[in-house]
Specification:
heterodimer, A: about 200 residues, mainly alpha, 10 helices, B: mainly alpha, about 70% helix, elongated
């Protein structure tokens, strides 16, 4: 129940939202905010930044809802805006520097991993161990149903880049979740510099 | 003999994006590949099953403050004009001071000025017009104090809008809010005057 596709926003509420109705804004927020925040936290791994994304996304919604013509498009539009805000934060020099200094634990460092992500379920912990852009690609593709082409457009890269990130991420996820994926040819996902 | 599938192949098969159906069949025939496919599918299901995260209630308040603030910054004249018009219409319709409609108006002051709320509304409008004048525009953006005052004014505007929308006829509350708005606008004007004399701060 993590993705926007599972959310149903009442058509009457969506129409009222486009008219700038405050009550509808509150209802839309209560309906959609947990999904926006869930996505932002899983991609950014930083609660403060995730809350910024949540705020920016809904301020955009309130400012621009009147420009949307189709009430059915509200949830998809919001998903796109939230994904953009997440990506912009990943790309910010401040975030990149912070990520480099505060690198996520490697899968082969269970002590650090356990301490850092204690209390979180396995998949959440494993996701947190991936590189930020890999998390973004996996989340958008697997949870939000983005195509590789759409991810390429969002990130300013190619669809191949998205496929490569997905495979790279899954190589680590499968290792962490189940141990080595036996017998696979992993050339396509082998990190650069490894023989 | 066929080579083993790459992880990219298996992900493409899982996602229905694998174009070569003959090759896909060969891969399906491999028990090891099927097991890995099942694992990839399970991981995706687990990701999709992660719950949403409820935000702190304070985030909604912050969003509303920002939204009101951004609206005021984009449409300050419209905000003032709308609230002014609402106030003026209410004053005329509600006639809070009980002016006898048959009695002649005083020569020195119209009914708007004789009402304390109307006087505050007019004062607020004059201050806002002066603040928006190009002659008062300062370089260097807004200071932290100015931003705080603008947010405060936006909050008061929201309270005034809610008051008028509710049809409340509480003159004391209207006077309080308009008084607050005038006080903040005066503070904003003072702040801008000081900045004009001292020059922009270095942040």
């Amino acid at each position: 129940m993590a993705g926007f596709a599972d959310i149903h926003l009442d058509p009457g509420i969506a129409r009222a939202l486009l008219r700038g109705d405050r009550r509808a804004q509150g209802i839309a927020y209560r309906t959609l905010a947990p999904t926006v925040l869930g996505m932002a936290i899983r991609i950014l791994r930083d609660e403060g930044l995730a809350q910024e994304v949540l705020q920016d996304t809904f301020v955009d919604l309130m400012d621009k809802a009147a420009t949307l013509r189709d009430p059915d498009a509200v949830v998809g539009w919001l998903r796109k805006v939230a994904a953009n805000h997440c990506f912009m934060r990943l790309r910010s020099p401040w975030h990149q520097r912070r990520t480099a200094e505060d690198a996520a634990p490697e899968p082969d460092d269970p002590a650090d991993s356990d301490e850092r992500w204690q209390g979180q379920c396995d998949i959440e912990r494993a996701l947190g161990a991936l590189a930020p852009e890999t998390r973004l690609v996996i989340w958008l593709h697997d949870v939000e149903g983005y195509t590789h082409q759409e991810i390429g457009q969002l990130t300013g890269q190619t669809a191949s880049y998205s496929k490569s990130q997905l495979a790279r991420g899954y190589a680590k996820l499968t290792q962490m979740m189940q141990g080595e994926a036996h017998g696979l040819e992993t050339d396509a996902v082998r990190p650069a510099g490894h023989s | 003999m066929d080579s083993k599938p790459t992880l990219s192949d298996l992900l493409a098969i899982r996602d229905g994006e694998f174009a070569d159906s003959d090759r896909a069949e060969q891969i399906y025939a491999d028990p090891e590949a099927r097991a890995t496919l099942a694992s990839l599918t399970r991981i995706r299901s687990e990701l999709r099953a992660l719950p949403g995260i409820e935000p702190d209630p304070a985030v909604w308040d912050a969003i509303q403050r920002r939204q009101r603030g951004s609206w005021l910054r984009r449409f300050p004249v419209a905000t003032a004009a709308t609230v002014f018009l609402a106030a003026a219409l209410t004053v005329v319709w509600w006639n809070p001071v009980g002016v006898d409609e048959q009695a002649p108006a005083p020569a020195s002051a119209g009914p708007m000025v004789s009402d304390p709320v109307a006087a505050l509304v007019m004062r607020s409008q004059r201050l806002e017009s002066a603040l928006l004048s190009p002659a008062t525009a300062l370089e260097g953006g807004t200071s932290a104090t100015e931003r705080a005052l603008l947010f405060g004014i936006a909050d008061v505007d929201a309270q005034l809008s809610a008051l008028y929308e509710s049809g409340s006829a509480d003159p004391a509350e209207r006077e309080r809010l308009w008084g607050l708005r005038v006080a903040m606008l005066e503070s904003l004007a003072d702040e801008q005057r000081q900045r004009a004399v001292i020059g922009p701060a270095i942040y």
